[in-house]
Amino acid sequence: MTSNWSLCGVCYNHHIIKPSEVRCSECNNGLCRECKKNHSVSKDTLHHTVKYKKLPAEVLQIAQDCKIHNERYELFCSEHDCPCCKICVNHNDCESLFDINEYTKNVKTSDAFHEIEQTLQEVVDNIKRIIANREYNLESLKNKENEIKDEIKQIKTKINNHLDKLQGHLILNLIEIEQLESSKIQKLLTTLKKQEEEITEYQENFTVIKQHASELQIFLAMKNLEKDIASKEQFIESITKSDSMNHVNISCQVNQLPLQQITASVLRCVEMKVSSCTSALSIQKQKDKQAQISLAHVTNKIDSMNLTLQNHFNTGLINVRGCSLLPDGRMVFSCFTKNKLSVFKSVGQLDFEIKNIADTFDLVYIGNDCVAVSSGQSFPINVINIKKNRREKTIKVSTFSDGVKDNDGVAYIDGNLIYCSREEGLRMISCFDGSVSTIGSNNALSYASYVAAFKSRFFYTIHRDDSVTCCDYQGKILWTFSDANVLKTPLGISADNNGNVFVAGANSDNVIVISGDGKRYRELLSHEDGLIKPQVLHYDTSTDKLLVVNEKNDAFLYGVK
Hints:
alpha+beta, 4-stranded antiparallel β-sheet, 8 helices, 31% helix, 27% strand
């Protein structure tokens, strides 16, 4: 007998190797076409049910008989976690031997079977998330390559402009030198031509005198000419002995050493570097393994949490609906009334503003000098490049077939934007291909709900019932915090590195922190700290700083320990 269902068991017992077409689980054998016919008419096997092979080969090859005793498995040893037959003596002393039929009874509906199904789905989903993360990295590398190419072109333009100026300066210097030397020669030529004219006149007069003057006149004239000719000869001799007769030449001598140094310095100005940082990718765990991890340190973190005011400044803005701390320490705010972004320096001074970018509600930093800005309506989410002060792209959240979808609060994790879509609940949109999926189906939100992401969990606010809710990637609600005596009209929300959640209470004029399990809370800031309708906040996990912004004017930056 063989339990390899890929082969015909009957033929195998006759030392013939044939592939099977069907299997009989009662005989624990595979059957070829000929043996199947005999099997179906034999008295002992007439009523056996045979099935065509649909199981994977690796499952068909799993042995159901004891390899040592060639007997069917009838027992299961939970101590050694293995099946065994009745003859197996190495398990006689085991106290955890059970009838294998009891173990396999209703196995398809068991928790273990369901858990394996979930784990398999988790693995597939996590692989997809990792693939998406790496594809996003590829896309960001290509975008960065294009940005650096543009920067190199700008450097080239600056160098060319500088060389053009240098060329102009050198040519101007050349012209000045040429004109100076030419003027010296021209001055000498003018003098020589004048002397030439005088000598020519002497020659003409001497010819006339020779023909018509008397001897005395010729004699006296000769004496005068001798004096003039002598002075002319002295003039010519002085010129020939002076530098005036030197052949003047202009040349350009290029010192190669400074040029080589300039070339080397230009190359040193631009250096390509590769850097990496830990990915924010979080792996989903559908099993409640996290429940086994003690949250005592989180509770202690809340009890001992200390905020230190580092800056308090006036933004001059009204109806601020979004804020974020940038990696370079600057801060960006979205003004819903004016539809603009305002970028402030780390010291609290206005750096610049970006206007005319359509409706602006919440915002989140997504890397590569870009922030994603929700509209607070059904308009697209805009991706704005803070460095270049321009809109990079738009991400549509509504389609003709899908209908109108609003987008209020927004968060970012692993290349995906998570946004609040009111009655549609939380929705996830890929920054790569724009694909949209809904997180859960029954988690309806209110207008102006905000969301934060931490590993495999999402936290969102619903101001109409003064609640803060935590759910997983499937939308399953893990906990809800709601206490109007503590928190009224919760809006902005953000999470720290331990999963603690910071929430701004607009009508309770406070900021509270809730533990990651939702069981504990603590008020951190209140009206006494200057909070008047605080609407948004952002916790920067890289610097442990908390930015809190009132509906208008006041912004507060705290260090958190």
